[in-house]
Input
Amino acid sequence: MKHNFGAGPGILPHEVLKQAAASVVDMNGIGLSILEISHRSPEFEAVLEETVKLVKELLEVPEGYSVLFLQGGASTQFALAPYNLLPEGGKAAYLETGVWANKALKEAKFFGDVQIVASSKESNFTYIPKDYTIPADAAYFHITSNNTIYGTQSQSFPKSPVPVVCDMSSDIFSRKINVADFGLIYAGAQKNMGPAGTTLVIVKDEILGKAGRKIPAMFNYQTQIEGGSMYNTPPVFAIYVSMLTLNWLKSKGGVAAIEKENISKARVLYEEIDRNPFFKGVCAVEDRSHMNVCFVMEDPAFEKAFLKLCDDKDIIGIKGHRSVGGFRASIYNALPITSVYVLIDAMQEFAEKNKQ
Output
């Protein structure tokens, strides 16, 4: 058995993979593959309807919000959010907490003025800024909820005088949120929801149509809402697997239940990092992510040997991002706590073998 700690595309539940694999050959006994059915067929329309219903149920999406499944990844949303929400000559406020937040604000500069209200760049993004003021004259305030590369996560969200736009790509469905606190949420599917290929967008209808610019149809949230995520051919397979994954999550007790599991997984792993003299965390303790646990070795000379041990134990995807080094254990929803204990056992074994 492989223990998949990869940062993304991330681990999916085994039962979801089995269902998806069967449907690649024959979807629900209809004699056709999910890969070849029409997106206008009753079978796929039912899939899309069920997936939207599950999103609304699991996240308790209130009335007045639309749920979309789009293409282009969260990186496309970096541009589409300001394209749809930032008026010409207007201002948007951004919290800079890592690479993806930085890329998002760079895209917004094509559409208007961007104010960085706070940044942790000076510390190589090892914490989430807390004391800042969101300008009331901004069109929106953008935040990245979880930073996969640096291992930080916003444990709470600020009260904002303007709509909050949030990139939740790496922690959507991992914890309870109040959707009503946000104007726009977007998330690539490939961490906790499904395979790469579709992006979930949840948008408050009343904030749209105010940018005062003409927007091409494919980039216009209102057009996509009117088309029911099917203005053009949607990513059929990615949406189907997302439906299977969300049904799996529902069967486990929903977001509240998986949040408890995620807290437990993160707690035991951080405890080992703090206890083991060979390893140390890199982030402010209060901002540690429950999704991406980043750590380094006290002596970097041991890194290759520890990676070799992990490889021998079928621990996959543990190497840190190339921009920061060290190690990163991504513990998404589908990763069982038993895999976390395999990693902890490897850390303890390594320390025992190499102690002076």
Remarks:
- The chain is about 35% helix and 15% strand.
- Residues 254-275 form the longest helix (22 residues).
- The CA atoms of residues 282 and 295 lie 6 Å apart.
- The first strand starts at residue 3 and ends at 4.
